[in-house]
Inverse folding.
């Protein structure tokens, strides 16, 4: 088979489309003939040498895919060969074939084509697992950073569908319009003093839950606009890894800071998250409460161009590689 291989850590120019061995499914695994693979910021970090795959995982990029089951390993009864699936992966998605745990494969939502479905799982699993951890209540206000991105696009719609008041940040007028179209009640320019605008939009109270992809560079400002008993969920470090925390301010707000990752979770946790996606979130797609994000399709062999586009910040929604 052919796959995208990173010859050495660095820029997109290190990515080549080349022949590699086709894997064989072991116990509990399925081999998927890839139709499409989503592109995520974690892929950029791995390409740069900052985010190695978990032990035993493929070193090929790609944390999600859609496709058709080619074969199954010992002990697998579901899914079955020939069936369409969407899979959450520890790696390997940028290839013509990929191995996945059977427990992390689900049927795509009805009415969503297989290629579009290739970019749904990582964002859906990230958002549902983190909102569950934060105990997000429909009566609450949630702030979503990077609202026009793959995770943000889904988070806005999901929080809106739950009945929450949704605030979001985005960097350009067209991206802010996009967020409003997804259901955000208030959209802020992250180049401005958005933390003051969050407090103004909430009558000084702040956001109950903040979904943050920025990391250290936004830590102080997130704390400044966190509501009493609020929960800050950090899922990315686009603005740095190290910051200073005013613990006194956190104590005064009775606040909680949660930092989570998805890729390295134990298999049982990932299986439970995938089950939650299929049973709780796919019906929202099927009922029209949530729609797939704006999707940019790029041939899998041109994955380097997809990375360049994501790094440029010029895209919104999801970038999907088509096999």
């Amino acid at each position: 088979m052919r796959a995208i291989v990173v010859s050495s850590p660095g820029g997109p120019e290190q990515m080549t489309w080349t022949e590699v061995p086709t894997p064989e499914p072991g116990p509990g695994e399925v081999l998927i003939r890839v139709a499409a693979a989503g592109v995520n910021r974690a892929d950029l970090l791995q390409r740069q040498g900052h985010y190695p795959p978990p032990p035993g995982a493929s070193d090929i990029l790609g944390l999600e895919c859609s496709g058709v089951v080619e074969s199954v390993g010992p002990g697998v009864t579901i899914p079955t060969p020939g069936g369409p699936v969407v899979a959450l992966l520890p790696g390997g998605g940028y290839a013509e074939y990929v191995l996945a745990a059977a427990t992390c494969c689900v049927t795509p939502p009805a009415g969503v084509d297989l290629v579009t479905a290739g970019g749904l799982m990582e964002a859906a699993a990230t958002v549902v697992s983190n909102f569950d951890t934060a105990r997000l209540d429909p009566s609450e206000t949630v702030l979503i950073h990077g609202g026009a991105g793959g995770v943000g696009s889904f988070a806005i719609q999901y929080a809106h569908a739950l009945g929450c008041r949704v605030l979001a940040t985005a960097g350009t007028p067209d991206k802010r319009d996009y967020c409003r179209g997804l259901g955000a009640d208030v959209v802020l320019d992250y180049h401005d003093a958005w933390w003051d605008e969050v407090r103004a939009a909430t009558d000084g109270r702040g956001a109950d839950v903040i979904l943050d992809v920025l990391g250290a560079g936004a830590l102080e400002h997130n704390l400044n606009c966190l509501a009493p008993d609020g929960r800050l969920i950090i899922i990315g470090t686009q603005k740095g890894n190290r910051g200073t925390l005013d613990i006194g301010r956190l104590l005064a707000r009775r606040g909680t800071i949660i930092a989570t990752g998805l890729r390295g979770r134990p298999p049982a946790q990932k299986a439970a998250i995938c089950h939650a996606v299929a049973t709780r979130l796919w019906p929202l797609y099927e009922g029209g409460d949530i729609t797939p994000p704006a999707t940019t399709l790029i041939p899998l062999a041109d994955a380097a161009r997809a990375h360049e586009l994501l790094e440029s910040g010029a895209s919104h929604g999801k970038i999907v590689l088509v096999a």
User: Anything to note?
Assistant: The chain has ten helices and 15 strands.
